[in-house]
Amino acid sequence: MEKRVMTDGKRRKGLVAVAALLGGVLTLAACGDDAGGKAGAGNGHAKSQAQVDKAVAEDASDARIKITPEDGANNAGINNDVRVAVTGGKLTDVRMTAVASGAEVPGTMAADGKSWKPQGQLQRATKYAITAKAEDAKGRGATENSKLTTVSPANSFIGNFTPEDGSTVGVGMPVSIRFDKAITNKADIERRIKVSSTSGQQAVGHWFNDTRLDLRPQSYWQAGSTVTLKLDLDGVEGAPGVKGVQDKTVTFKVGRNQVSTVDTKSKKMTVTRDGKTIKTIPISAGSPENPTYNGQMVISEKFKETRMDGSTVGFKKKNGKGEYDIKDVPHAMRLSTSGTFIHGNYWGDDSVFGNVNTSHGCVGLNDKKGGDDAKQAGAWFYENSLIGDVVVVKNSPDKQIQPDNGLNGWNMTWDKWVAGSALS
Fold first, then answer.
1. pLDDT band at 98 (very low <50, low <70, confident <90, very high)
2. Largest CB tally within 10 Å, which of 148, 337, 343, 351?
């Protein structure tokens, strides 16, 4: 009896162990059963997970955020490239920060909450991070993150322009743009630069070289007109891998029409304003050895007083010093890049003006040391001249000034000027 009882106990334990083992095998088989035949427990688990996934999908926000440029972008423009927009909802918060410094970029949200953009210009060669949040009509939220790097100075260019925004200039003032890198895609760049005038005059561009573009009308600007320069260069490729970073509008006003004619033979200058002669001034132009250029020259700079050193413009003595070095030339106005000025002269005798040409190529007007005598010819002409006024020199034994020597493109026929446009 005891032996049989013990045997039955062991047998029962063995059956339990076998059942457990078989249960484990069956359980493993059920987890791996893709057919779903008899694996009831596995089917129930898969069904519940699918329901969860469906519920999550149904609860997702309808708001779809798009950040431009795309995440990881390099060489992004610094003016208009960056934008955050949303469909199916409204933006609730957008934060843009410089990664290195953590400085936040101020931005502007559209009134309808559909878009956001940075205020002002971004920094070049800077990495930025953007986090944007939005909600749909049911209040369900959505978030997007992105990083971008703006264009570097090595891969971008700017155009330094004249005249200045808000200035009043003479009728001969062209728009002159000097690019800080060579431009090879000239047509693409010129197409994105617009000059318009309230006078209706059409300005055409002329490339003097790979870095200089001037724009002017066929004849002088009309007095009293307003001229607008639009530089729409942000993101435009000026050369392979080199993009523009400017989006700028410049406006300047054209003053009265003043043209002054210097006759080196009679040694007099006639100042004409709006078609009427307002003053005749005795002058002293370049000597026979150093005559003044002929041609139409535009005043590009004005200095109440400046130093003139002959060594800087090629007039050197054997010891390397200049043939002249005057530290306080009054009322000097630049007519050429190479050093031609019309200026006050206090060191010459009064008898020189109107009688003898004695300069190294400049046009001299009688003046007083210090330039504080308003009655002197030099002082009067300075006070009555604008940057952009035209000074015409004639009857000089020298050649005509080159159009690119200063702002002097008027010394070129209109046909040749137009031929220098990349759009011609």
1. very high
2. 343
